[in-house]
Amino acid sequence: MTRRLFWKLCLIIGTGVVAMFYLINVAVNHFENDMSMLSDSSRTELTDWQTKAEIIFDQGDMSELERWVDNLQQQENIWAVIAKANVVELAGNRSHRYEYTGYNLGRSIDWKIHLYFDRAPAMQLPFKDGTTSLVVQLPQRMRPGSLWNLTRLSLQVLLPMSILVCLSIVLYRHIMHPIKELDLASRAFSKGDFSVRVREQLGSRNDELSQLAETFDLMAERISEQIMHQRVLLTDLSHELRTPLTRLDIATDNLLSHREEGVEDTQIKLERIHKESQHIRKLVDDTLTLSWLDNESPQLRIESLDLVDLLEILIEDGRFEYPDKLISADLPNQAHIENSNHRALGQALENILRNALRYTPINKQVRVSLIDHEYEYQIIISDQGPGVPKEHLNTIFRPFFRIDSARSCNSDSFGLGLALAQRQLNAIAATVFATNSIAGGLIMTVTVPKGV
């Protein structure tokens, strides 16, 4: 397993956490810068103070200037002063005076105000002469960042929480989408919609959950095939059982309604009842075996055997059972296979051989040949019967399938022989397929692995 989902989650979580810290840092810096600047109204008011002080200063009325400064201090509960920033050189080169005259006595109104100091800063509002300034303590009401603590708390708590919630939603949707599809499919499947599938709903997704969807689809396909097969099997079985049961009822009714007839007639009817009973038993046994093979898909490769010995026994039995048919065999001295099953392979080949003999006309020939390949043996059983229409070459392996022309002349056949043969061969990793001979008749090719 590649653990694609694990790496996806690592990527999403890692990216989300890095993005969270980055966004928090950007947001804190942005809000801190914005909230550190004086508002436009405060700047305007401070500029108005500077303008008023400069007008009084230019008039030369120092007593009026003193009164104005005192009123400002009392009104705003701050300290304020009109000061000059002249530099007196004591030694050294005086040619760079322009670089250090007019040094700052306080902050400019365009500078940031530190949000973490408790003491209000001093603001310098220079006059036009470049040497005189109004230096005033910033009133508390003008200090920016009154909501900084609340804003910082929001940025440190609410923003990370919001990012983590968004990240959780992304993870939840990424994980829950296939789970939700599986849940809906399971509900639909439980209500009888056996065609429901999940993998195609996940698009190009390729991780552990998509693999789970594929497993679900395989399971759903297998279960739906079994259920549909069981339904068809039960329907066909009920249909097939009606015929021998009807004949059995007729024979029983005749036996009960004609008790006065002779012993010979009664014996014939009893034999008829016995025959129909055997047919029903064989039908039920074959149906149960077929159902077991379909549902359990057993692996029966447990023993070694010689195909030649097995085929010779089956051919002898066929000659005894169908003395009016000819069987020719082209077999090597031996054909040893491993990991097979004598019973399953024998019953499958017997059903195929009997099917060929059943539909071969009297005095016509069934040919059995065995070809040795590198890793497998091919058993070819060809007859001289009517063959099978091309469109039914695969259908003949379905349970209870019989061609109409064969149904009327072979009342003892239930249409289970080839279906059983195919399932038994599959259980030992062998295959069978049918083709029509150019010269007429049906050719059944059985491929059996050597198992070595």
Descriptive labels:
five-stranded mixed beta sheet, single chain, Heat Shock Protein 90, Beta-Lactamase, three-stranded antiparallel beta sheet, alpha+beta, 452 residues, 54% helix
The CATH topology of the domain at 303-449? Heat Shock Protein 90
Q: What percent strand?
A: 5-15%
Task: Indicate the radius of gyration in whole angstroms.
Answer: 51 Å
Discrete helix count: 10
Helices and strands, in N-to-C order? HHHEEEHHHEHEEHEEHHEE
CATH superfamily of the domain at 303-449: Histidine kinase-like ATPase, C-terminal domain
What topology, given as strand order, has the largest sheet?
5-7-8-10-9
Overall strand count: 10
Protein name: histidine kinase
Domain Histidine kinase: 236-452
Domain HAMP: 173-228
Subcellular location: Cell membrane
Draw up the topology in text:
Layout (H helix, E strand, L loop, with lengths): L3 H32 L4 H20 L2 H15 L3 E5 L37 E5 L5 E6 L10 H43 L17 H50 L5 H34 L6 E4 H15 L4 E5 L5 E5 L1 H17 L6 E8 L3 E7 L21 H6 L7 H10 L4 E6 L5 E8 L3
Parallel strand pairs: 5-7
Antiparallel strand pairs: 1-3, 2-3, 4-6, 7-8, 8-10, 9-10
Helix pairs in contact: 1-4, 2-3, 4-5, 5-6, 6-10, 7-8, 8-10
InterPro entries: HAMP_dom, HATPase_C_sf, HATPase_dom, His_kinase_dom, HisK_dim/P_dom, HisK_dim/P_sf, HK_sensor, HK_sensor_dom_sf
Membrane topology: Multi-pass membrane protein
Protein name: histidine kinase
